[in-house]
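Crash report, auto-generated. Payload:
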Amino acid sequence: MARIGIAGAGIIGCATAVHLIEQGHEVTMFEKDIDGLPASVGNAGILAVPEIDPLARPDMILSAPKWLLDPLGPLTLRWQDLPALTPWLVNLLLSATPARVARSRTALLGLMRQALGAHEDLARMTGLSGHMKQTGALTIFDTPKAVEAAYRHESENAALIGYGVEKLDSTQARSRVPALEGQFAGGVFSSGYQTFLDPLSLLRHLQAHIRQRATLVDAPVDAVRSDANGVTIKATGHEQKTFDKVVISAGVWSRDLVRGLGLKVLLENERGYNTTFSDPQVTLELPVFFAEHGFVATPLHRALRVGGAVELAKPDAPANFARAAAMRQKMRRYVPSLPETGGKEWMGRRPSTPDSVPVIGLSPNDPRIALAFGHGHLGLTLSAITGRKIAEVLETGPSPDLAPFSIARFQ
Ligand SMILES: Cc1cc2nc3c(=O)[nH]c(=O)nc-3n(C[C@H](O)[C@H](O)[C@H](O)COP(=O)(O)OP(=O)(O)OC[C@H]3O[C@@H](n4cnc5c(N)ncnc54)[C@H](O)[C@@H]3O)c2cc1C
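Recovered output after restart:
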C-alpha cells in the first residue's frame, strides 16, 4: 500500500483515483474548485471511440484560414493571445505531416480499442449502471460529396476498431432523427459511439465514491516537489504533505505543475461552448454531429446539449457566449424546432496537446510522479483507460506501451 496524492479531480483524476483505491492505496485528492463545472461536466457526453484522427491534419490545416475569418465559426483564435499560443500552434502545424498524423492515429487507436471495456470496468468498480446508452451517432453534411468522403473515411476507421457505418440520404437520416426537418444532403451513421446520460452526475458519482474511501481536499495544489523522502504537495491553506507517489491530472492547469518540476509541455486549452436545454420540447434520438460547422447536439437525461467548436485563447480570457448563440442559430437551419430561449450557456477548456495525443505515463525525471492530462476532445472517452494505465504504471514502473504518450516528446 502506498500513500498517493492526486492533483485535480476532473474525470481523468477521478478515474485514476478509483483504480488506485481499488488496488488498496491510501489516496488523497486535491481539487481547487470542488463545486466547479470543468470540461469534465460540460462536455458533449459522447463516448467517441471512432475518433482516432488528430486535430492537426492536412485537410484541417487547409480549412483553418477560411474558418479563422469567421469569429463565430468552428475555429477561432483570440488574436491578442497569439504570442502565448505561438509555440503550440507551430507544433500543431508540424504535427500535420502524414507521418505524424499516422503516429497520432496509431496511438489513439490503441487506447480507443480499450476505452469501452475500461468504462464498463469503472462502472463495475463504482456501482454505476444505466449511465451509458448504445446510441451510435449520426453525422450530417450539406453536400453529397462530403457525405461520400466521410463515409469512405469512417468505413476505414470502423474496420480498424470493429463497428458498423451506414451511408444515409436525407430521408433515411430523418427517419432516424425526425427533428432534422431542415435541408441537408445526407449523413453517415456510426454504431461506434455511445452516450453518457449525464456527465455531471457521472463526475459527482465518482467524487462521492472517492470521498467515502479516500480523502478529498478542497484546495488548489500550488506546487509538487520531490526529494529522497518522497513527493510533496503544497496546497493553499494546508501544511505541505509528503506522499510515496503523486499523480498530476489538473487538466490544462497541469502545465504549471509540471513546469515546476522542470518538465516542458505544450498544453493549451481549446475552449468550447454549449447550451443545455432542460426538458426540451424537441428531442433527438441520438447525437448528431454537424461536422461542417464544428458542433454536435446530444440528447442527455431530460436535456439537449448543443455545442462544440474551438476557441484558442488563454484559459482565463473572458468567455464569448456569442459563440454558443451562433451554434444554436446554425442548428435551427436543420432543427427548426430548437427553442429560441431557455437554454443554459457554458464554456469549458479542453486540455490539448498539439498532436492530440494525451500525456499518460511517468515523469522521465522521477518514476514516483505520474502525468495524466492533455486529452483534448476525448477526455471523457479516454478517462477510464487512462486511470487504468496510470494505476498499472505506478505499480509496475515504465511501460513501453505508453511510450507514444510520454511527456519526453516535449523535452
Ligand atoms: C465543449 C466540449 C465538449 C466535449 N465533448 C466531449 C465528448 O463528448 N467526449 C469526450 O470524450 N470528451 C469531450 N470533451 C473533452 C473532455 O471534456 C475533456 O478532455 C476532459 O473533461 C478533460 O478532463 P480533465 O480531468 O483532464 O480536465 P478538467 O475537466 O479540466 O479537470 C481538471 C480538474 O483539475 C482541477 N485543478 C486544476 N488545477 C488544479 C490545482 N492546481 N490543484 C487542484 N485542482 C486543480 C480543476 O478545477 C478541474 O476540476 C469535451 C470538451 C468540451 C470543452
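Post-recovery validation: The chain is about 35% helix and 30% strand.
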